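Fold it.
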Amino acid sequence: MDDRRTVRVSRYLSKHLRHQPERIGLTLDEGGWVEIDTLIAAGAAHGFRFTREELDHVVATNDKRRFAVEGTRVRANQGHSVDVDLGLPAATPPPYLYHGTVARHLEAIRAEGLRPMNRHDVHLSADRETATRVGARRGRPVVLSVDAAAMHHDGHVFHISANGVWLTKSVPARHLRFPAPH
């Protein structure tokens, strides 16, 4: 499977397992799972054919480990805008976590903190390198440090997804450390 096809299948899975399952007639269960055969049939019925082997390849090779397979089912590990309960237990975060963004969002973040926008949770990284890659998807990256220990002490709940993404409902601006202006 070439890289372009891998990206196309991955984007298709993301769109329909995280955001618009109903667009192709899918119903995710409460944990976000769907039968793989059902997903493949729905894709074919709506003009996007892919095989179980292609799905397995995307799951195995995705650098962000966005998807999980359990038996005959598949789901996205996080990033949903549709209502699902991933069943992730609360976890104690490391002292600091990181969030990648771009400069044009800094004014709003300073005023409102980090909000989940159209997703269920704010996504945070355990290291600066990952946060830098996340921010770079939308331009020149800016990495914010999150005082996760202070947030946890204040009662904020954290979860960690199967692919290592830290999730929380919001990050108040007082718990963010902004880089010095250039």
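The mean pLDDT is 94.
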